[in-house]
Amino acid sequence: MAEDTTSKSTNELLMRVLQVESPELFDGSDDQPVRVVGYDYSPFCEAVCETCGDDPEMLTIAFETKNGERYSEYYDYFGLPNILEALDKWDKQYGKVVENRG
């Protein structure tokens, strides 16, 4: 995973995904995430043989904590629809819902 290479906007959106999908991380301790430092997305990969399993779509978000340590959170079966749903949930909980004007 390439860290510190994503844009500020992407990192802010992924921090919102962390808040919605892993609220237990945001407990006010020194281990609480303060910024996203990178991410990795793995698309669904169908099994190459009958006895092998499929590799699920997966999102990994790397973050830095209050005390400066770096960790990653892994989400299996997590693609774009899940990310968008998490962002909608974040808007409803913490932000301002923007109406679609299209």
TrEMBL record:
User: Superkingdom of the source?
Assistant: Bacteria
Q: What is the recorded name of this protein? A: Uncharacterized protein
Q: Which species is this UniProt entry from?
A: Bifidobacterium adolescentis
Q: What is the lineage of its organism?
A: Bacteria, Bacillati, Actinomycetota, Actinomycetes, Bifidobacteriales
